[in-house]
Structure formats: structure tokens, C-alpha cells
Amino acid sequence: MKIQIDCYGFEAASEHFQRRKLEAFLIKNDGGVVYACFGTGEMRPIHRIDKDPDGCVRVMWAYGRWDEAEDLAYVPINETIMIERED
Asked: Structure pTM?
């Protein structure tokens, strides 16, 4: 079953969905691109901060494994995504 989550991993049914911000757990800088993860699970929300071709700072996020952060499919920070529920 798929569920909708926000950029911190809160499900759409949660009282915290798109209302609560978390502090980053791990942060790494990879050639000018900053990655920050929220949580300690194998699968977790990961934020990516970089610059677009015009030099504007861009904040995106994805849900996946920390060790694969560079290869995930990122969406704009204010968008939600659908994931498979981990039961």
C-alpha cells in the first residue's frame, strides 16, 4: 500500500504532516552539494541543497538510503511523495 509523506517522513494522516520541522541527523558536503538526512532508519528523508544554473539556492528532497543520496530522484522541498508503507 502506498502512503503520502512530507519532506520529514510524516504520513499524510499524522498531525505533524507539513507542520513540524526536524533537525538534521547527518550532513555531508559533496562538491558544493549539501545533503542532510532526517532519521536513522535504513530508508529516510534526505534533503539536497545546491545551486541551479542561475546561481539560486535550491532545496530538494527524496526518500531513500543515505549511502545512495547522490543518486536519488529529488523533488522540490514543498512537494510530497508517495512511498510503499513499511509494515
From this structure: 0.82
Cβ atoms of 45 and 9 closer than 8 Å: yes
Cβ atoms of residues 5 and 40 within 8 Å: no
Domain residue spans of the chain: 2-84
Q: Which pLDDT score, from 0 to 100, does residue 70 have?
A: 96
Q: Which residues of 56-83 are buried (b: 16+ CB within 10 A; e: fewer)?
A: eeeebbbbbebeebeebebeeeeebbee
For the residues 9-20, what does the mean pLDDT come to?
76
DSSP state for residue 23 in the 8-state scheme: -
